[in-house]
Each structure stands twice: as structure tokens, then as C-alpha cells.
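To the team - adenosine-5'-triphosphate complex, inputs and output below.
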Amino acid sequence: MGRPSVLLITKSEKVSQTFESNLRMFFGTNVQIFTAHENLELDSQIVSECDLILVSSHHVLESLPKTFDQARALVARRTVQMAKLEQLMGLAPGTRCLFVSNSMDTAVDAIQLLIRLGFDHLHFIPYVAQPGENRADLERIDVAITHGFRELIPDTIEKLIDLDTRPIDLTTIFDIARLLDLPMEKAHFYTAEFFRDFVRLGRNLANSVNNEKQLNQKLESVFNAVHEGIISIDECGRITVFNEEAEKILKLSAENCIGKSYLDVIPEFKLNQILQSRAGESNQLLEIRNLVLLVSKVPVIVEGHLMGVVVTFQDVTIVQRIEQEIRKKSTSLGLTTKYSFEHIIGVSESINSTKQVAVKLAESDYTVLITGENGTGKEVFAQAIHRHSSRRDGSFVPVNFAGLVENLAESELFGYEEGSFTGAKKGGKMGLFELAHNGTIFLDEIGDAPLSIQATLLRVLQERQVMRVGGNRVIPVNVRVIAATNRNLADMISKGTFREDLYYRLNVLPLNIPNLRERREDLFILIDYFLHDKRKRLHFTPEVKNVLLNYNWPGNIRELQNFMKYLMVIVEGDTVKREHIPERILNCGAFPSHSLDPSARRKAEEREDILHILARHGSLIDYENILSILWDFSKRQERVGRTVICSLLSSPLSESQVRNKLALLNRCGCISIGVKKQGTTITAIGIQVLQKLREEVERLPNQAPSYFSPIR
Ligand SMILES: Nc1ncnc2c1ncn2[C@@H]1O[C@H](COP(=O)(O)OP(=O)(O)OP(=O)(O)O)[C@@H](O)[C@H]1O
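Output:
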């Protein structure tokens, strides 16, 4: 008996080859195989003699000649190559898939199989190309799928998945074996091959499930780490994400919400609108359950398909609290104000009219130039103007040019980028102008700004933008400028030490603060105010009152304040008598009279008078020595303690001597002694006095020349 024979009749050669290799794998050489397909003539002898005719589809069977003996024919049931299915797993639900085949029934058959295998979330459209056909519905196709018929796919479709030719199903193989009475010794190979694909697919799926799990866990921790409520719904409105912050804000548990329709849990969010319109909304205020939320809604669209909506929200009261905390922090940085117009004490005509002018200036946004002697309250006025202006909620950033070291001034004022110089902080640093954005920058002692800085300042004031040191981008700054000085800028312009163009930029709205001599009627009002502030009662004898009224108060209100502190320490009891008054005040007659012109008077008050006082209380060399040390530290923007000063003195003094000298320098306004061991620093007056002292000391014989170098 010869080997049984099988004739394979298929539409295409490719399918015929697949069938042949399927049968060979199962039956080996125990079967004779003949093939016939579209391009091959049917051999009538083979047709009549073969034991079994295996056709690839009903369509092929129907197309055979009427004389054909259908009793020996078997239509192959076909499966898919499992491993190829992986390509379909990544397709989103609702993806429009054009299923391309060479006949409509194979396309429909393949689609039915895919649906049975679980791909029922995809939208399949069977397709067989017709000559000259131009289907409009092909434009909305996302992907074309085929079993080996790539050449039939319309050119307009870019994405393609080829699942390769479909092999013969295992049940058809068993039917053939039964019909031809064939041994099934190699069956295990075929089944092994078949199941190997299953196992591989299963393994890949398990991996991707694991990966998805890990990804989900990561996403969940990200969602829970943010300080915003996050809720996500799918396209049917079911809640899929409900993070910890959402639980906290809405006081709902995620467990009770996930999987439910959002309409049953949080209908107020009105997410159907987003599902319908596919348009997001950002930063909308929503009142819900006694809360005010700032809500943003974003539709999730993947490859053109709406997958759901993500909602993020914050409790507005918390946002406001954070804002308050930031404000508090800026207070601790010294960026807010202490004084408003109510804190400006005085009843005199001059202070009242100055206050009235200042209130008007505060209402505009122009640059203000405040002039006045030391201690008259220029900064107090600057703060009050800021507080009364529309920028009151922004920062008030004071910059003291007398204390600004020239080579650090630019980076202080305009900031720097990371790595712009040795010692530059990581991430760079914001400059004072940037800090003052939307607020006020107070350029104190502007007359002390070095010429190089004056030029940069002028540019910034003109352009209202800064560039950080080492940076290459301009940063726009919206600041109001208030400048102040106790110097005569007009004089400085004529000497070439102050830029005229900068002066006109600053002197838009001038404000002159009267000195204490011009408002003597305020003297005892201020004294009362300072005593009351310290909860202290002091009476002044008529003689003392007279002395105080006749004194010229070169250091103005600051000097008066310090004098009151002095009295509080030295007066035992509550009456201030002549013996309590320091010599410099009693000997006021020794000071230049008020009839001198203002600039000469200032000079005398600030330098000569102080020099006289110092000369009466010890050696000028010692004072020069102390101020030099303080000036050196100030250049490094550091304060220094008494012990360090003692150790650095070139002509030794005891600690108590240094203490007394520091106290006198402090009373004269030359230094500022920090509270609670913060160390001491030199003031602008101190720097001027030091200059004067050096000139004086240089005239003294037998001094080491290097000691008296000019102030740098
Ligand atoms: N009108 C006022 N009422 C109450 N206190 C005042 C008044 N003016 C100034 N002071 C007080 O006097 C001190 C000096 O004020 P401020 O620092 O504003 O003066 P300044 O003119 O800016 O001084 P400088 O020229 O030295 O910078 C401050 O402690 C302030 O509290």
C-alpha cells in the first residue's frame, strides 16, 4: 500500500507553503503532498487519485469546478500564530483596525477568531481591496492588520501589524490523521510548537503585567508625593485614581471611591462636560462642601482616543496659608517694613507738611529721592511710603551703599549664576533687585555708591531689567525705587563723584526730611515717645530742658534715641539733672552755630565735632586704630567683637578702655554695636570720621607711614 496523498488547494502560494510545512511537521514523510493555488492549473489526475483534498476556505471550495468530488474535500480550520498577537496588546480600546485579507470570508473569519481570543475592545473593519476603490472611511483608520497580505494594504495607512499566515488548526490536523489513518508519532512536535507560542506569549504577558504593576506602584507614589489632589476617571466616568491628598482635601477614602462612577462620589466636578468637549479647564475656582478649590481638568487623549479625564486641585485656604508663610519668611529676611506714617512722631509744622507730601508721593509709583541729615528718619519715611503704596504686599528691600563692598556690590544687587566666580553658591543667587520684584527697593546712602555701580544702576533703572553676574539672560524687574542720602548730591556732581544722569533718574519726586533743630517743638514729644516705649518715667529739670532745646542734635532722632538710652542707664531715680548730661551737650556752644550754611554745618557736625569729642576722650590714634579694624572687617561684610578688636590693636589697650572707646564711638554714630554678641560694625559716619582721623593723625609726628594709608 502506497503513502496516502493530500492535495492542498489554496488561494495564494504563501498559504499553500504554510499548510505544507504544518503537515510535514505533523506527519513527516508519511504523507504525499500536492499543491494547487491561483497561479497553478488543477491537475485532474491528481484531483481524481488523491485521498484527501484540503482547501484553505469555503470560498476556495465554492470556486472549484462543479464536477469536483466534494466528499473527499476538507475545509481547513485555521488558527493564528500566538506569538504574533503580542503586537495587538498595545492597542488602545476603540482603536479602528482595518483587517486586510485576500477574501472577505477569510477576513471575517480571522476577525471572529481574534474577538474570541479576547481582542473585543478593538474596532475591526474587514477589508478586501477592490480595483479603483476609494473608500472615504479609510481616512479614520488607526492601523491595518493582516495575515501576510501587506501588499493589499491601502497606502494611506501608516501603521501596520502583520500577524503572518494563519497555520492549520490542531483539530483539522487530527481530522486529517483520522481520515487518512495516519500514525501520529510526531504529534508531540506539532503540539509542542503550538503550545510553545502560548507559553512565550504568557511569559511576555506576565512580564508586562509585572512591569505594569511596578509602573503603577511608581505612579501611585508620585501621585501621593504631590501636594495636590489628583483624581482620574476613565472614559465611562469611573474613578481610577484618587490620591492621598484628594482623600485629605475631600475627606473621602480612596478605597470607597475607586471603581465608582464619579457622579456618585463627586458630581460637583462636572467631568462629563470634559468627556464631551475634550477641552481642558485650568485654575477654576470651585465651591464644594464648604471648601474652595482651585481646580484644573485635563482630558486624557492617547493616539486620538479619549481615555478619561485627570483632575488636579488644591484647597485655596492652604494656598493662602502657604503664601502667608512665605510672607512671614520674607519678614525674617528683613524684606518687610516696620514703620508706617503713624510711627512718624511729631506735631511741628515741618514734620506734618513733610508727612503730607510723603503720603501723596506714596500714592504714585515714581522714584523718590529722600534727602536729610543723618538720623532724621529717611528710612522710616521710605518704609512708610512703601506701606502706603499699591506695592504694600510686595517686599521692601533695603540696600545700604555705605556698607556695600565695591567688588561684591554687583553680585549683591543683581545676583549671580552658579559657577560665575570662586565661592559662588550652587544654583546661583538672586540679587536684591530680583528680591524686590513687585515691591520697593530702598537705595540707602546712595551718595556712597562707587561710580562703577552708579553706571550699572543707571542702566537698570532705565531698562528695568537685570542680568545676573555670569549670566546671559535678562530678567525683567518691576520695582519702585526709593533712594536716600545725607550727602549733597549737587556738590558731588560738580566734583565728579556722582553721576548727573543718575541724579536726574532718582530725583523724580524729591522729599527733604527736616532735621531736629528745625522742629524743636517735637523734642519733648519724641522724648516722651521713647520713654513710653521703654516703659520708663523721667523728669527733666528746667535747666536740663533748656540745655536740650539749645543743643543742635547733629545725629538728629537717632542721637536723641541713643541719648535717652544713655539716660535710662545712668540716671538713678527719675529726675534728669545737669550732672547727667554729657559734656558735648552741655558745651554745645563749642559747636558751630546754626547760622553756618547747611553743607558746612553738616560737615562740621559729622566730622569735626565728632573729632573734637573723641579728642577730649583719649588719643585720636586709638580711635583711628579701632575704626580701621572695624573698616577692614566691614569691607568683608563682617562684624567684629571687642576681644578680637583688642587682639588686633597695634598700640595695646585694656578691654575696659576699648569698651569705653567703643561706647563713645557708638554715641557719636560712628559704629553700630550689635545686640546679643552680634559684634560691632562701622557706620557711614564712622567711615567719614576715620578718613578725617587719618588726615589728623598723619599730621602727628613719628607715626609709621603704612598705618595711615588712605581709605580703600
Ligand atoms: N519721626 C520719627 N518718629 C519716631 N522715630 C523716628 C522718627 N524718625 C526717625 N526715627 C527713629 O530714628 C532712628 C533713625 O531713623 P532712620 O534710620 O530712618 O534715619 P536715617 O535718616 O535713615 O538715618 P541715616 O542717614 O543714618 O541712614 C530710627 O531708629 C527711627 O526709629
